[in-house]
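Milestone 3.1: sequence recovery, worked example.
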């Protein structure tokens, strides 16, 4: 089990935990933090989805919930899993902690919380932190992290150990062939080690530069797409795409051009440039019923798509399942818990579907 020296406690965690779960000693709080920190060091998509469901108070996959409890006990052997409220707090703390990192899973967890909220239409359970605000902040920060320029100014050979004092000591009077050969052999080993370390450092810098160039190429393509104002998928200018179809069509096309999660820092300006607005309001049924079924089929929605994390994909699946513009709505409403009459701006619907499309990837 991890100890305090391994995982210094985040001061926020003590406030989150002690304000919710009363009567815990400092030692117990530290053990819970050790468990949370241990979990976030081994975070993956399946666990992230499980914890997001927990913080929204939704039904959780039993296998993943059991895995979460096992990992908590691995970090704190005195943890009991019979307190659902405590599990929700620990799930929220784990998500908040992982979203403070620069790991790729941080962006995935943040997108899941944002899509689960669906522009605030679904509420998280009562938590001691604003997890949705933290998720939005994480997405902005991670978009910048992906685009951070690597530091290239230092000389990769400057810190490499090239001392040959050990080899010099092998060359002593009187000179012998064995001594000279031993010195040469050790010198070759030092040179070989130096070259390998230098190559490793250079390759790391090249890899980071290659990634940055790929990110810039992606942004350039998105920029030309936005300024060209033409949808390849719809084969039409942005302004000629029907208002009801525009949020799905353009966000899906933008997602197809996005390789690096969570997408561009300027996501909202790009979608606004494409003609999506906070003034134009739509219901989800109006947006889903607008495109042809052939286009909806191209999205690849499945029955396994989470109704919490991908409510718009779930709507597409329901629509295709019934092949009717009305029959699917009631079933979708019951499964996702969203009033079918609720209106969203075209901009917010596009942002929602964009993140859902990114989450849909394997």
């Amino acid at each position: 089990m991890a100890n305090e020296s391994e995982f210094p406690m985040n001061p926020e965690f003590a406030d989150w935990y002690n304000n919710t779960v009363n009567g815990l000693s400092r030692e117990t709080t530290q053990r819970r933090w050790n468990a949370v920190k241990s979990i976030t060091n081994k975070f993956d998509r399946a666990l992230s989805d499980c914890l997001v469901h927990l913080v929204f108070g939704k039904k959780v996959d039993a296998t993943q919930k059991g895995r979460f409890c096992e990992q908590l006990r691995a970090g704190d052997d005195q943890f009991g899993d019979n307190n659902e409220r405590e599990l929700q707090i620990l799930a929220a703390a784990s998500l908040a902690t992982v979203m403070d990192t620069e790991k790729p899973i941080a962006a995935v967890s943040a997108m899941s919380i944002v899509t689960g909220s669906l522009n605030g239409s679904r509420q998280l359970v009562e938590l001691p932190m604003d997890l949705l605000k933290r998720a939005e902040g994480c997405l902005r920060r991670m978009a910048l992290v992906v685009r951070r320029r690597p530091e290239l100014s230092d000389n990769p050979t400057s810190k490499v150990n090239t001392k040959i004092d050990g080899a010099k000591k092998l060359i002593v009077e009187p000179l012998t062939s064995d001594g000279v050969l031993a010195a040469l052999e050790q010198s070759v080993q030092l040179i070989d080690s130096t070259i390998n370390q230098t190559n490793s450092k250079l390759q790391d810098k090249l890899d980071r530069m290659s990634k940055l160039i790929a990110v810039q190429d992606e942004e350039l393509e998105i920029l030309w797409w936005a300024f060209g104002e033409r949808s390849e998928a719809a084969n039409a200018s942005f302004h000629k795409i029907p208002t009801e179809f525009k949020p799905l069509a353009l966000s899906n096309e933008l997602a197809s051009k996005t390789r690096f999660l969570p997408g561009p820092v300027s996501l909202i300006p790009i979608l606004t440039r494409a003609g999506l607005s906070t003034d134009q309001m739509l219901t989800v049924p109006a947006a889903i019923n607008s495109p042809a079924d052939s286009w909806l089929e191209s999205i690849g929605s499945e029955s396994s798509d989470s109704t919490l994390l991908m409510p718009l994909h779930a709507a597409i699946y329901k629509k295709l399942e019934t092949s009717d513009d009305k029959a699917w709505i009631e079933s979708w409403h019951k499964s996702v818990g969203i009033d079918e009459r609720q209106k969203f701006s075209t901009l917010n619907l596009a942002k929602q579907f964009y993140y859902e499309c990114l989450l849909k990837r394997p």
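The longest strand covers residues 281-283. Residues 45 and 362 are 10 Å apart (CA to CA).
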